[in-house]
Amino acid sequence: MARNGMTLACSVRSHRLVGNADFQDAHVASCLRCQAEAVRYRTLLRHLAELGAETVEAPPAIVALVTAGLSEGSDVPKKAAGREAAVAAAGLAAVAGAVALWRRSLSA
Amino acid sequence: MADRNVEESAELLDRARQGDEGAFSELVRHHQHEVFTLALRLLGNYELAADAAQETFIRAWRALPRFRGDSALSTWLHRITVNTSWTLGRRAQRHRASTLDEALFMDDSSAPSPESSAEAADLGGRLRTAVSELPDPQRAVVVLKDIYGWSHAEVAKALDISVTAAKVRLHRARQKLKEKLWREME
Ligand SMILES: [Zn+2]
Fold this sequence. Notes:
Strand content of chain B: under 5%
Structural class of chain B: mainly alpha
Largest interface: A-B, 39 and 49 residues
Number of strands of chain A: 0
CATH architecture of the largest domain in chain B: Orthogonal Bundle
Oligomer: heterodimer
Number of helices of chain B: 10
Distance between the termini of chain B: 49 Å
Number of domains of chain B: 2
Bound molecules: zinc ion
Order of helices and strands of chain B: HHHHHHHHHH
CATH class of the largest domain in chain B: Mainly Alpha
Number of strands of chain B: 0
Radius of gyration of chain A: 28 Å
Largest sheet of chain A: none
Number of domains of chain A: 2
Radius of gyration of chain B: 19 Å
Helix content of chain B: over 70%
Largest sheet of chain B: none
Distance between the termini of chain A: 53 Å
Helix content of chain A: 55-70%
Order of helices and strands of chain A: HHHHH
Number of helices of chain A: 5
Strand content of chain A: under 5%
Shape of chain B: elongated
């Protein structure tokens, strides 16, 4: 008999329940401790799955930063040239400012 | 409506593949939040996740000519996010190790912020914190398998480990999370 009323049988089941929270046998069916353990793992898995449905909003500068970085190197033939390149350069300066502000807000 | 969105996405993807930066920016706009969220779950750090999301899209742009569309664009982006986050996470870890002495004299960024303490009041919030505190290899497995529902084989392939190793890490991670959450409640 181990601590907290945990028997060797409970310990073996606890190990099974980590991999499969729905694991059932005669011991689990009659042991309140193991049933509580099963509920905990089911609750844990349900909450983890719920996290997968959550979306955290990306920092606002990401699209601008990526767009500015596209011209730096790619296997894709580029279309931007001439006037568009000048616009991109101006955009890059604006992005650098936005990033500085964003980083400052992060460390504030 | 859903069909129209699919058509629009396919058209954007086609244009982006041909080098249309505007079309690719539009795709980034569509996918930025999901990519950032995955990076945040994997790295447990907002600023690092922002860098990973940015790097993911740049890598995707470079690799776009090789994207054959065998999987959905978001699935492909998720794989790149995992690789990128892994690389950035390891780099940050090396950096942390090399600046350990310096860090001793600075604020501990891993200490819970006021927001995370307040958030920790509910199970979901405490779970987010507990996941972010797992060691990187265990967090990666629990995020991909239990949060995003990937198969053991997909997780093993993405992290370049065996399926057995993925299962062992998951086992340990779940045990740690369970112990952390319910010990705190007792
Ligand atoms: Zn038992």
